[in-house]
Amino acid sequence: MGRKVIVVGGGASGMAAAIMAARQGAQVTILEHMDRVGKKLLSTGNGRCNLTNLSMESGCYHCSQPGFPMKAIRCFDVGHTLGFLEELGIMVKSKNGYIYPNSEQASAVLDLFRLELLRLQIQSITGCQVKQLHSKKGQRFFAVTDQGGFSGDALILAAGSKAAPATGSDGSGYRLAERFGHKVITPLPALVQLCCEGRHFKQLAGVRCEAEISLFCAGKRLSSALGEVQLTEYGVSGIPTFQVSRFASTSLEKKKPVEIALDFLPAKSQEETEQFLKKRALQMPHLEIEDFLTGVLHKKLAAVLVKLSHIPARQAAADVPQDAWERLARQIKSFQAAVSATKSFEHAQVCCGGVDTRDILPETMESKLVPGLYLAGELLDVDGICGGYNLQWAWTSGCLAGIHAGSPNRLPHRK
Q1: Which region, left, alpha or beta, applies to residue 345 given φ > 0 means left and ψ of -120 to 50 means alpha?
Q2: What is the pLDDT of residues 106-116, one digit of tens each?
Q3: pTM of structure
Q4: Residue ranges per structural domain of the chain
Q5: Parallel, antiparallel, or unpaired for β 350-355 and 184-190?
Q6: Helix ranges restricted to H, 89-164
Q7: Class of domain 4-189+352-406 (CATH, top level)
């Protein structure tokens, strides 16, 4: 009879861990407090499920122990992941290195995971609230739940973070990890929208534009990202905003001033932008300034930038003084706003912070404090940028935990 393995949490990492443990011959039970496993997976990649990314570098992950994520990923990398997904029956395709299911349906991915859980006779106890976990000399683990007690030779904690609680991530896993002596670094929203100060945002609501967003703390630039930025009545959203948001969260938590700067013509320098405006004025001297940037920037955005540059909207381009072009170029290249907050955990895709990885073995995901205890997924202090990196972390950490909790065996074939 194989080892008994308890998996707390039926998200992406929990399902991966359960499947890999069962493939080693273990008897596996998943304890999931939602009414079904894998709910959060349905929302990934806007429902298309960005499974992983072919470009895998250390800068794609954030962790208090910077080398930790890549040490784990070297043990179970993208090649192993593609093999694992193929074994589940998931056909994938690449879009500039971003890996999606060929169907572009997260629901289809979840269906195949559930079919594999059934094939392996993995017991999924849903609607199950874990009240207490404890171990007996690190050799036997016990889970007390509202649906009875469970015991196992190994325990995998994959209960998620506090991000997107509607999908099941309520932060309860942190408390369970702390009971085994693990430290938790304060979880904060990441991959989330930013709330900004300034009366202009209501006027800019609905504008989408290609821009570079830079995030500053006390005047020091911490991060920047390029792509489609969405301006809203409360501030900024969009993938570039998500990429820099963790730095806003950590700085605001320390009560430090945070500011963003938006560059609406990132392909041009400040000087090039100023020369472009002056040349355009020579070509179209009759245009009133309110129409001057038509075809260059969104009309609502142009109106705000012109106003901030203190140029009368009805003034003809030929009559605009030379120093005004410099002011307008400066606004186009560096539209600044103070960040007052991030959106809440309800809006965040992941968290920064979590269980301190200093007490985790990256090669196996086993606790250094309690032999036989494994931790995986968003529960840990690891967060990736947008682009499939957080799901790759789920596959890597979940599969490593499952393999070693169930008893070591072969890795899936690499493609």
Answers
A1: alpha
A2: 999 999 999 99
A3: 0.94
A4: 4-189+352-406, 193-342
A5: antiparallel
A6: 106-119
A7: alpha beta
